[in-house]
Please model this.
Amino acid sequence: MTCLFCQIAAGERPATIVYRSDDVVAFRDIHPQAPTHILIIPTKHIVSVAEATVEDEGLIGRLVTTAKEIAQQANLQGYRLVINTGSQAGQSVFHLHVHLLGGRALQWPPG
Ligand code: 5GP
Ligand code: ZN
Model:
């Protein structure tokens, strides 16, 4: 298995896991861009939003509600959820993931 995030989901690669269920895993980003920077992924390998299907709707919804729960537990006053899709948009790991960013003021528009 060569996908980094499949390896993390399977426990085959170390990560600071903050949440785990049968179908969703959340862990701290190795290069945090904010005081709170957590990645929420499906355990199912989906390359990106561009490859997601209607069958994945419930799963993708759970990524967002999991992010909300983590943000509430971290007592974030505001936060941003980001899903980079495709290399031109900055996606570097091709296993769908939601970035949860918070703990500092965030600029808009992003770069
Ligand atoms: P992307 O650029 O694809 O939207 O986000 C990928 C994120 O994964 C980056 O923020 C990067 O720092 C993070 N990342 C890459 N490899 C690893 C790793 O092995 N462990 C963890 N925890 N994060 C990683
Ligand atoms: Zn994967």
